[in-house]
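DATA SHEET
Item: assembly model
Revision: 1
Owner: S.N.
Input lines:
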Amino acid sequence: MRRGYIIPIGGAEEKIRDPAILRRFVDICGGEAARIAIIPTASQLAETGPRYEEIFLQLGAKNAQSLAFNERQDCHREDWLQVLRDADGVFLTGGNQLRLSTTIGGTPVADLLRQRNQEGLHVAGTSAGAAFLSEHMIAFGDEGATPRVDMVFLAPGLGLTKLTVVDQHFRQRDRLGRLLTALAYNPRPIGIGLDEDTAAFLDADGRLEVAGSGAITIVDPSEVEYSSVDSARRSEPVSILGVRLHVLIDGATYHIPTRVAQAPRELARS
Amino acid sequence: MRRGYIIPIGGAEEKIRDPAILRRFVDICGGEAARIAIIPTASQLAETGPRYEEIFLQLGAKNAQSLAFNERQDCHREDWLQVLRDADGVFLTGGNQLRLSTTIGGTPVADLLRQRNQEGLHVAGTSAGAAFLSEHMIAFGDEGATPRVDMVFLAPGLGLTKLTVVDQHFRQRDRLGRLLTALAYNPRPIGIGLDEDTAAFLDADGRLEVAGSGAITIVDPSEVEYSSVDSARRSEPVSILGVRLHVLIDGATYHIPTRVAQAPRELARS
């Protein structure tokens, strides 16, 4: 059995004119046969779920159903759990990632998403939905490019993968500093900084491909020689030596197990 | 193959007069046949490692060797990795848990400890060493019993288990608030608040037994109905409804999968 895709999106993805990321998600889920479940929990707006239902149906999905898990008790509703069991893809909307983790964390919905992603279910999330996908989630933090020991708050996320820590609206909100801080704490996962309207399609082999109009900043701490995060005082800048950084655009790939980045195949030139 | 014990200790464990926790650790590791490796990385003091070598030899271990992983490069030393491969038990000293995660995280030492714990290696840690054992580690935070959204900083830990978040020097440093905050972010793991000179011996089935002179506070968020951590502003108090709490002393057990606590068997009365 092959694990489904994990697809963090940087927020503000194009929905009308040329919705390349959402169309690709529908295609991966089976195109005309695709059954898509939407989890609008992160959003406080009642129209968020129905809006995505409409978008996915316009993109040709067979069906699209929004499941309004608003309270922890909702996460035990058998009819909605059945929709998740039958789905080819699940889409988590934007909003506040702590609403996702506090509402869904530790419930049958979270267990089911982890289990079914292992079995082939594709799981996408935009903005807050993207932040929530990994084991270690950036809950909130401060802007700025210089890391400080107290500029980022991590929390347990959904836990589909331990390979990555994701940050979104990346260059739009100047978030390199908080992503570097998160990785300085423990240089185990790689950092994925997602610009708006940009997605990482992460496959079962740990290879991600970039799609969308912006860029993805890959922050690889595996060769870090030193960081001062253990000795820095609160609000002081933190030193980190030896971070590798890649900026990838549409069509580029990155293979996490081997840490190899590849530019888009330049077929047009040949 | 049966996973080895995971043994977080709340710090300041008795070392001379009646070292019940350390003696039990040596016994579990094979008593007179026990080969124990010590990782003193969290400590800044050169004498910490040799001190524990002496203690474990006095308690009858066959050998005890401190491995001074001070820099990330040290974590590639083949001779020290071989000591970890041959060990029956590994003991992580106290100090600063961010020194552990920044020095060992993402290196062959961390990979080896996770793999060998799965295969039967027993891993104990005291204070900072205890905080580091779980997937989600409390890196630092503020004192006080009332949770606030920004009072605790989590970071990726060693990752031996996702079942628990550990806090140490628990009642001595008034840390209920920060542990509650950590669990409010995502009510998936259980919280283990360890008093000084108190340990949790967590076995392969997810049952922990308390040993030592203080108490363990188990914080079980699995029935939490509501928390305000997603809407609270920084430094504001956070509301959480439905936390279950147990205070357990020497001999009591707690089974994490079923969330059942048992008092020590009261044989003296029968």
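QC remark: Chain A touches chain B at residues 71-73, 96, 98-99, 101-102, 105-106, 110, 135-137, 139, 150, 153-157, 159, 162, 182, 184-189, 221-222, 224-227, 229-231 (CB under 8 Å).
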